[in-house]
Amino acid sequence: MKRIFCLILILAAIRMSAQPVSLLPRPQKYKETKGVLVWNSSTPLTVSSVKEIPEAGAHQNEAYTLSVTQKGVRIQAVTDEGVFRAEQTLAQLQMLKKIPCCEITDWAAFSVRGFMQDVGRSYISLEELKTEIDLLSRFKVNVFHWHLTENQAWRLESKRYPQLTAAGNMTRHAGRFYTQEEARELVQFCKERHVMLIPELDMPGHSAAFVRAFGCDMQSPEGMAILRDLLEEACEVFREVPYLHIGTDEVRIQNPEFIPAMVKHVREQGLKVVSWNPGADYKAGEIDMTQMWGYRGKVTEGVPAIDCRLHYINHFDHFADIIALYTSTIGREKEEDKVKGTVLCVWNDRQLPSEKDIVAQNSLYPCMLAAAERAWLGGGWQYFDKNGTILPPEGTEEHTAFVNFESRMLWHKEKTFAHEPFPYVRQTHQHWNITQAFPNGGDLNAVFPPEKELKQEYQWEGKTYTVGQATGAGIYLRHVWGNNMVACYYPDPLPDHTAYAYTWVYSPKAQEAGLMVEFQNYSRSEKDWPAPQGCWDTKGSRIWLNDVEILPPVWTTQIQDGVDNETLLGNENASARKPVPVTLRKGWNKVLLKLPVGQFNTDKVRLVKWMFCCTFVTPDGRAALDGITYYTKKK
Length: 635
Hints:
Oligomer: single chain
Low-confidence stretches: 1-17
Radius of gyration: 26 Å
Shape: globular
Mean pLDDT: 94
Distance between the termini: 33 Å
Largest sheet: 9 strands, antiparallel
């Protein structure tokens, strides 16, 4: 039976590897035929409509077939949207010098595959938003959730109430907002790419900017009257989109008439309504769609739902979380027919230096490519909170699938995203030894046996401490949301412990390299203090290469008396700085990491990430360092 299972995995790997490296998302069905097509401007391309594509079943709207022969290309689809999706697949094939002749039948497993930018907190230029939407639409991302209002600012122009976007009523990026003409322009830009724009006017919470402008609460009679005017104006601006999002999360509903009145008013303008869950409570018919967030988000019976639970990438690291994102199902068990897809959210409570930092430090493109493929293909092996961020063992279907995805993603990093922030590098070849954690009694400087000698087993104070293995450039020992939510390396991590991770790196020559390293990936939604100068973090983490300690960079954020959301994140995150320059000797190189942790929540860092990121990269940090091999044992 075991041999049969292994054969199945081998055949699955062959099927995936037979597909051209460029195709992302991977098509539902791909069959390579004989020959190649050299594409040029005179290559025949025929497009025709069909009533249905039988293999797509109920998923006809975006379904298509694409046939490549030595004579030309034929596309068939049920809708114009399906034709557009086929054209994106063809565009990826055209990036190859020679297109393998093939037959593709493809469709979307989920109808919502999107991302959200919080421009209420941090204004993002229309040009940057267009860049993101255009690039991601090439990978069949079809929803852009535009979070336009927050405590910091109301970013959508109102001609009836111009004070709403006055600079004096904004606390961040004062005076920056989108005119109604720009909003209409972005709607049209999205439509041309078959992307559904969902604008959000958050109410009645997250509304300090509204209160500053009008001097009244949204739930008051005066506030509700103003909101009705604003909703009428916004619905006219967004006349060509199907939904308006009204927020309703993280607020006490004091006026029970508020939510029903706002939903009714939006519907009277001809738009459907989306609302967060947890948020206001609805029954079937009282809302058109919910968007589940946090861990407690639930499907409302009889109401379609978007799954954003645990998909807030502003809390993600760059390497471990993408594994959970890719291997996870969308929707928990028994939610298959109720969940319409997923949206990855970028919340920037903490201000970043630039809009490109928002892309880089949130690892927007790698995360979205992982989500785009999973939402297009469907499937997955467990929900995000089950096996979590650990890369499955080699030889498993999950491992094979992620390695295959990683290869295709990195191909597009070089081809499609060459001029965009893309902090991900290859990690599936990287292996670590990780010790059981030693109790440090709250002393983060306590020294344990691995600092003196590397072994596979240690004796300490009458107990045996063993060594296990993990794969990847980034490893969570305990997840930011806790292991009761997301599984990580330690099944039951405890505070006040010290772990060690080590690996052997074989280099065929002496060479200069970069080292991407961090021990606390700072969330873009937290008021975390930076590390003291001369320290990697507030936990006492350390790293040695060939027994020589590697010191941290000079931190650009200097904090004396605390930090708030307006204190810019500087170079705290590895994606915001150059890699540490290091020299690898020819032959074996020893890498040792010391990983202490005290309490999991402190007065300086609310969400302590017991983790590490460590990988050798090219000196410019663009790619993993080629030609080296990571071993758990010195051979």
